[in-house]
Design brief:
Elements: H1 62-71, E1 92-101, E2 113-122, H2 127-137, H3 141-146, E3 160-166, E4 168-174, H4 184-198, E5 204-211, E6 214-215, E7 218-219, E8 224-225, E9 242-246, E10 252-253, E11 257-263, E12 269-276, E13 281-288, E14 296-302, E15 310-319, E16 326-336
Parallel strand pairs: 4-5, 10-16
Antiparallel strand pairs: 1-2, 3-4, 5-6, 7-8, 9-11, 11-14, 12-13, 12-15, 15-16
Helix pairs in contact: 2-4
Length: 338
């Protein structure tokens, strides 16, 4: 497993409005069809339960679970990435994990950038906690074969001690190892990985961090201020100019395929192409984001027709305003289903 230690870059601003706190803490299920590409996971009902009612998920158990995770760290799923996976059964849930990878670079914006990866995990009422523990485990061998240079900035000895969700605010308790090693970019990247992973759930808008149960105001020796809860908007510089959020890399999709994400492109316009492994183009064209001035969302629908499962790629890019050349090219590997 590859982990990034990036040493120099100016710290980015991450302050956002403080979220209010309400009633009981809950741990939410996966995003619904309004927030993600329509695939098998969108039909699963989100489940919730009190975080305090999970005796086997608490901080006391974390060191033992981490030891088990370390033992399995080099025995990740070895299935070929371009072979269709078996459909998820009722005992698994499909979630998105956010790691780092190259692709999408422009003269004004260097990578690596966040990328979303789809993974099936055992179903549990404490889905946010379980998903964060998957994130800390790092990319699997199959995911690394799927995406070149896929890596993480989260230190491998980090423990996820707890997650409580209350009125749109997720309080994430991590062990002190989470702030060890790396420069400002590495620190910002690991914070972004956690924030994007937790906010995929519709009950979470913002995240506040605890380390070993203690509130964090200044994170790491880099002095990144976390006096208020943070949201995805605090980490937009870690996105490529066209960021495909859903479908995530490795997803199995059917037609019509909904594509959502964020873009920072000239005149709000970018290009896309969906093609199979043999180069057959199934759909292509241009799409627009909501704004051509700032990073803003996009939402488009692609259609295709295949006879059986097909490995494919969704490529997005923007044309240079200077010379019309392709820049910010990023590729998302998928499996197309009839």
């Amino acid at each position: 497993m590859r982990r990034i230690q990036l040493s120099t870059m100016a710290a980015l601003a991450v302050a956002v409005l403080l979220a209010g706190c309400g009633g009981g803490a809950v741990d939410a299920g996966p995003v619904d069809a309004g927030d993600a590409a329509p695939d098998a996971s969108d039909d699963e009902d989100a489940t919730a339960d009190d975080a305090d009612e999970q005796p086997d998920e608490g901080a006391d158990d974390a060191p033992d679970e981490a030891s088990e995770d370390e033992a399995s760290r080099d025995t990740s799923d070895e299935d070929d990435a371009d072979e269709p996976r078996e459909p998820a059964d009722e005992d698994t849930t499909t979630v998105r994990l956010y790691y780092l990878a190259g692709g999408g670079e422009t003269p004004a914006r260097a990578g690596p950038f966040l990328t979303s990866v789809e993974r099936e995990i055992p179903s549990t009422p404490g889905i946010a906690l379980a998903t964060l523990r998957e994130l800390v485990d790092g990319p699997s061998a199959a995911e690394q074969r799927l995406i070149d240079d896929l890596a993480t900035s989260v230190p491998e000895d980090t423990l996820v001690l707890g997650v409580a969700i209350d009125d749109g605010l997720a309080t994430v308790d991590l062990s002190r190892e989470f702030e060890s090693g790396g420069g400002s970019l590495s620190m910002m990247s690991r914070l972004a990985q956690v924030v994007y992973t937790v906010t995929q759930f519709p009950t979470v808008d913002e995240v506040e961090f605890l380390l070993d149960g203690q509130p964090v105001t200044a994170f790491s020796g880099e002095g990144i201020m976390l006096e208020q809860p943070v949201s995805r908007d605090g980490y937009l510089r870690l996105l490529p100019t066209v960021f495909v959020d859903t479908p995530a890399a490795g997803a199995e999709v059917t037609s019509p395929m909904r594509v959502t994400g964020m873009a920072t492109v000239f005149e709000a316009t970018f290009q896309y192409r969906l093609e199979t492994a043999d180069g057959t183009v199934l759909d292509e064209g241009f799409a627009t984001a909501e704004s051509g001035v700032e990073t803003s969302p996009f939402d488009l629908t692609l259609e295709f027709d295949v006879d059986g499962p097909q490995p494919a790629t969704l490529t997005v890019w923007e044309e240079s305003a200077k010379d019309g050349s392709e820049q910010g090219v990023r590729v998302t590997p998928l499996t197309l289903l009839p």
